[in-house]
Specification:
Blueprint lengths: L1 E8 L3 E10 L2 E11 L6 H15 L7 E8 L3 E2 L4 E2 L13 H9 L3 E5 H12 L8 E4 L7 E5 L2 E3 L20 E2 L2 E2 L2 H4 L2 H17 L13 H9 L3 H25 L3 E4 L2 H4 L1 H15 L2 H5 L2 E4 L6 H8 L13
Parallel strand pairs: 1-4, 4-7, 8-13, 13-14
Antiparallel strand pairs: 1-2, 2-3, 5-6, 8-9, 9-10, 11-12
Helix pairs in contact: 3-11, 6-7, 7-9
């Protein structure tokens, strides 16, 4: 059993988590959060996170082995530097690994949030025992964490797994800065944009839908779909089909034994998976799809916390031998 520290840096809030890791699974001991925007600078926020960690540990850090830091990219995991993520204005080349290591006296490891979630599901969730697994965020955006040959694959500049940037259509909802991208169809923001486009098409024909009288969000679309609304069901069908096309590319290119998808896919698996599965069966290579399972994330709402904790022992297979 190892006591570790997890830090989750987000655009809305940040969390400092203390926990234990062992072969059976993680246990969260305590957690404190702060609102990101209330701080004037990255340094001010980082100092506050150190204070929260020390308070929770009651000043005794000697029992802790490492720190895992999860943050949206771009970042440099090798140097431990956050490099101007779009959701964190002003965070330009911030050396977070050195900052926390020096102040807390233990090794620290940085990964983007998709990679962190991939490690968590690989070690403690749906991916236990896998050597080749892909994790898909399917939240506000769409990114992937790749576990290949028993270890996390980052790529040469930490940009591996940006599946959401693949263009699915010449025109369509924008995601990841590209019209018609997979993220434009298969993410929270993308589903809202896609729905607004379809509502506009309907309005041009003189039709009115009740979504036009409320905020257009992915959550509202799925809620109405569950009530049997035909328009929203058609949106969900299209989203599932586009997701299936993206899954087929992953299956053909990487030949994983498992694909795990979180957030929206986990919450609405029953709606999205049938449409996605039908496309995969039609599009992906038969031999590759026959040995690949597609499942929702197993860690549920605790995934973000476990993801940060899971990085605290490093990300290669050997670093877990003593956990």
């Amino acid at each position: 059993m190892k006591k570790v520290i997890g830090i989750d840096i987000g655009g809305t809030k940040c969390a400092a988590v203390l926990g234990e890791l062992n072969a059976q699974g993680p246990r969260i001991l305590s957690k404190r959060t702060v609102q990101t925007r209330q701080f004037q600078s990255p340094q001010e926020l980082l100092h506050q996170l150190v204070e929260l960690i020390c308070e929770q540990a009651e000043g005794d850090l000697s029992q802790f082995y490492g720190i895992g830091i999860s943050c949206g990219g771009p970042l440099d995991s090798r140097r431990g530097v956050i490099q101007s993520p779009p959701h964190l204005p002003g965070w330009d080349n911030i050396p977070v690994v050195d900052f926390f290591s020096e102040r807390l006296g233990m090794p620290a490891y940085l990964q983007n949030d998709a990679n962190a979630c991939a490690v968590a599901e690989w070690k403690y969730g749906a991916g236990r025992g896998c050597r080749d697994m892909v994790f898909l965020t399917f939240g506000t955006g769409l990114g992937a964490g790749l576990i290949l040959n028993g270890g996390l694959y980052n790529g040469c500049c930490d940009m591996a797994g940006e599946i959401g940037h693949i263009r699915m259509e010449p025109l369509g909802p924008a995601g990841y800065g590209k019209l018609g991208s997979l993220e434009g169809f298969c993410s929270g923001d993308g589903i809202a944009l896609f729905t607004q486009m379809k509502l506009w098409e309907q309005s041009q024909r003189g039709a009115h839908h009740r979504l036009q009288d409320m905020e257009v969000t992915a959550q509202n679309v799925f809620e109405l779909a569950r009530q049997g609304d035909s328009f929203c069901l058609s949106i969900c069908q299209s989203v599932g089909e586009y997701f299936g096309r993206g899954l087929s590319v992953i299956i053909d290119m990487l030949n994983p034994e498992l694909i795990v998808a979180g957030s929206i896919f986990t919450r609405h698996y029953d709606i999205l998976y049938p449409a996605a599965k039908a496309v995969v069966e039609r599009e992906a290579l038969l031999r590759s799809q026959s040995c690949c399972k597609i499942v929702p994330a197993a860690l549920g709402e605790s995934l973000g916390d476990v993801a940060a904790l899971s990085l605290a022992m490093g990300t290669d297979e050997g670093s877990w031998s003593n956990v």
